[in-house]
Amino acid sequence: SAAFLDALAPGPDLAPPDLPERGEAGPELGGAPTRVGQVFEVTVPGGDSTYHLLRADGLAPLTRTGAALVLGDPATQKDAYAGESPTARAVGADALRRHRATSDAGLP
What we know:
Layout: H1 2-7, E1 39-43, E2 49-55, E3 58-62, H2 64-71, H3 74-80, E4 89-91, H4 93-98
Parallel strand pairs: 1-4
Antiparallel strand pairs: 1-2, 2-3
């Protein structure tokens, strides 16, 4: 009911993270060039997929919702994917180990 919803405290607005470096060249991952702002999916055998955002300092973890927000952001398509439709690219866990970000602060 409306009374129930009115009783709930509002949470933070859902928005993709601000990436001033979006579109800059990133490291080679999985044998292919990358750009800051791209989303990567890591699947571990017997485990769930995890999502990661490539920032200037490396791959930072994203929630599934965070990945959807980044992939749906027009700036991501324009800058990180050169106008192409943004999708999460699969990479191995080894890429994550070698290119892990120093912090995941501020990510959804």
